[in-house]
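Q: I'm writing up a methods section and want to include an example of the input and output format. Could you take the sequence below and give the corresponding predicted structure tokens, formatted cleanly so I can copy it straight into the document?
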Amino acid sequence: MKNRYLKNFNSMLNTPSFKLFMIVMTLMSLFCSALTTYKMDYFTSVIRIYTYSFYFVVLIAMMILITHKTVEMFKENQFQLIRMKSKEKCFETIMRQVVLNFSICFIVTVLLVFIGANLFHADNIIIQDIGSGISNVLYIFFLIFKAYLYLLILMLINTLLFYIIDEKLIIFLNALMVFTIEGYYLYLPYIKYEGNEIPIFISGLFTDTKFASFESELCITIGYFLIILLICYSLFKYVINKSKSMI
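A: Here is the clean output for your methods example:
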């Protein structure tokens, strides 16, 4: 079973989509690292990248590309799905492949960010408290883990949408999400509550949003995650129920 998923991922390595992903994310990581060189230490630079709206615009676009290619490869290879015992099993297989492909590609992007930081900030490494008793190193792990979980669920939602609505509409919805990231075109207000600026749309969490404390940021992050996880689960059930006319 695992060999089959890895074999499918290996098949994607030689595709133009993956090559474009590697080129763009390598250049993006180097660009962002170079951009944060002015009076910034190693860990502050990494934190800045993982709260930099332009980085997430590019990262989301590239992850959508990888997700689309993953789904496309399954559509082109119907034989893998025909052997499944049920439609639910078919979709579970596709979703697992998306999780694997996304996870590997996300790890690659993290490594690229740290390679860029090593190139430009290796001589200025400072571990310090950033508030609420949280060190900058621990906060980086939180930002990376948050980005991984949020983007993974968003890519799973994208995967399910490919079997529900037209691809052009999916592109529009993704563009809407990307362009509501702070600093890009469409502005969505924040809800101000006890020193926190709570975004009314998930894209606001991909930027340097102001929170009263780390505890507040953690609670709001978990709250939004549960919402999109519920959306993903609901879409999965909907797709299963309508699967007789799909694939």
